[in-house]
Amino acid sequence: MSAEPLPDDDQGLALHHITVRFGGLLALDDVSLRVAPGRIVGIIGPNGAGKTTLFNVICGFVGPQSGALTLDGKAFRPKPHHLTRRGIARTLQGVGQFSGMTVLENVLVGARSRKPEADAWAALERCGVAEHAGALPGSLPYAKRKRVELARALAAKPRILMLDEPAGGLDADEIRWLAELIQGAQTTVLLVEHHMELVMSVCDEILVLDFGKPIALGTPGEIRTNDKVAEAYLGAAA
Ligand SMILES: Nc1ncnc2c1ncn2[C@@H]1O[C@H](COP(=O)(O)OP(=O)(O)OP(=O)(O)O)[C@@H](O)[C@H]1O
Ligand SMILES: [Mg+2]
């Protein structure tokens, strides 16, 4: 499948006709998406729909069999070790901290500027976990560890913040806090999430995947009333 390059003045990240196969399994089937600067874009779909795989393509962990990515209109071939330099930071599904390091050390890993300590502390404070800076992440409750994971990503001051199921395992209060953080992030956000209320309340735009196929793209209002989306979720529940 050929990919149309974007004109040079097209800012932001774009995926053009991305296809990923794992053996006989089509994990992503001709997925295209444009993420304009400052937008909050949700990616939803039943389990196994290909959401994390899409993130892995953007981060360079998975190479697509066909299709291309562009960043600001130019070819973008992501490599995991170049991501922070390109302004892309990601949290992992679940909690993925280095267990032998303190909270502060974990967050410092994310920082990339000339003043990493200051960025790390600012991120810890923004996420309300500065008081735990000297603790080991494993000693903290799950919700706090999720906040540390967010702080690590924010410490990079990313232009694109990628969140993979940040609400997983959180209670209603924590999810409200998370919604405010996302909306106040003042950066582009890509959000993979099963918690529909969160997705519908914070996203400007939502892409729906089902068995790797993009079945809908629209505003929360459009997605909420889309028949194909309802069918995909009913099918998954059955
Ligand atoms: N490295 C891999 N090798 C083989 N199959 C894989 C690999 N990664 C993902 N898959 C398969 O690709 C499909 C899409 O997986 P993916 O993890 O992207 O789904 P998801 O939408 O993130 O699901 P969930 O909501 O459960 O996190 C699944 O069928 C999964 O088993
Ligand atoms: Mg996933």
From TrEMBL:
Matching SMART domains:
AAA (SM00382)
- InterPro entries assigned to the protein according to its UniProt record, in alphabetical order: AAA+_ATPase, ABC_AA/LPS_Transport, ABC_transporter-like_ATP-bd, BCA_ABC_TP_C, P-loop_NTPase
In alphabetical order, the GO MF annotations are:
ATP binding
The name under which this protein is listed is: ABC transporter ATP-binding protein
ABC transporter domain segment(s): 13-236
Keywords of the record, alphabetical order, are: ATP-binding, Nucleotide-binding, Transport
Q: Which organism is it from?
A: Paractinoplanes aksuensis
The answer to whether the entry has keyword ATP-binding is yes
What does UniProt list as this organism's lineage?
A: Bacteria, Bacillati, Actinomycetota, Actinomycetes, Micromonosporales
Q: Which SUPFAM superfamilies match?
A: P-loop containing nucleoside triphosphate hydrolases
- In the record, which residues are listed under signal peptide? none
